[in-house]
Design goal:
By secondary structure, the protein is of the alpha/beta class. The protein folds into 2 domains: 47 residues, no CATH class; 175 residues, Rossmann fold (3-Layer(aba) Sandwich), CATH 3.40.50.450. The protein has 9 helices and 9 strands. The protein has a 9-stranded mixed sheet with strand order 1-2-6-5-4-3-7-8-9, sandwiched between helices. Helix 3 packs parallel to helix 4 and helix 6 packs across helix 7. It is globular, with a radius of gyration of 18 Å. The N and C termini lie far apart (40 Å). This is DNA-processing protein DprA. Pfam families: DNA_processg_A. Belongs to the DprA/Smf family.
């Protein structure tokens, strides 16, 4: 089954629905070689947190230290377009959390990149929405290589798979599943950040949110989350208590 899942994952470039259909229809397959590290849902060392998902990935491709997906982690997420306050807030919150937790994020520009950079000297996991060897966005190339060499990058998409927009909602569920809690720094009302929060809520993960000024209009997602019951982070002491 392990070789079969790899063959389907390479044939369909990690597409969960297409792999599911191939399994259901018992599509013919042949053993294939893959020059990279991977784990399938049939393996004992498959990340246990992913088994909680409604659609657990069939195959996880990775580069780096796979022990990190077994450790307690917190997702630090937020907008791609950030404010100066948001960037400072992200660095400060991450600097506190990295002392106890693996920092998990999506290697996007903005808050994701800031969180990963702040945690490079500790522990961080990047969950990406493209092939494990594809650098996206290009501006994060140096960060990508640093995480790959010193930390952990994971994807359900094999080498060379392009970063199609449809991949990122699926990527978000993996961020939510790996994390023991989610911290939102800045969020727009309709955004990938809010989608990740919804995925985390499906898994009963606690949501924390940095408090923002009511005068701000760009990050109304924060106010929405707080009004719906997310736990506010008012001070550094609040962060230390996580």
């Amino acid at each position: 089954m392990r070789e079969q899942l790899l063959a389907y994952a390479l044939r369909y470039e990690g597409s969960w629905p297409q792999i599911a259909a191939a399994i259901r229809n018992a599509e013919p397959w042949q053993p294939v070689s893959y020059d990279g590290r991977y784990v399938t849902i049939t393996d004992a060392d498959y990340p246990a947190r992913f088994r909680q998902l409604r659609y657990p990935p069939w195959v996880i491709f990775y580069a780096g230290n796979s022990d990190l997906w077994k450790q307690a982690g917190i997702a630090v997420i937020g907008a791609r377009s950030t404010s100066a306050q948001g960037r400072e807030c992200c660095r400060d919150i991450t600097s506190i959390l990295k002392e106890k937790y693996v920092i998990i994020s999506g290697l996007a520009k903005g808050i994701d990149a800031i969180a990963h950079k702040e945690a490079l000297d500790a522990r961080t996991v990047a969950v990406i929405g493209c092939g494990i060897d594809v650098v996206y966005p290009r501006e994060n190339a140096a960060l990508y290589h640093s995480i790959k060499e010193r930390q952990l990058i994971i994807s359900e998409y094999p080498s060379h798979a392009k970063p199609f927009a449809s991949h990122f909602p699926w990527r978000n569920r993996l961020i939510a599943a790996l994390a023991d809690a989610v911290v939102v720094i800045e969020a727009k009302e309709r955004s990938g950040t809010m989608h990740t929060v919804n995925e985390a809520l499906e898994l009963s993960r606690p949501i924390y949110c940095a408090a923002r000024s009511y005068l701000e209009k760009d990050y109304l997602g924060n106010a929405l989350l707080l009004s719906q019951g997310a736990q506010p982070l008012w001070t550094r002491e609040d962060v230390k208590e996580l």
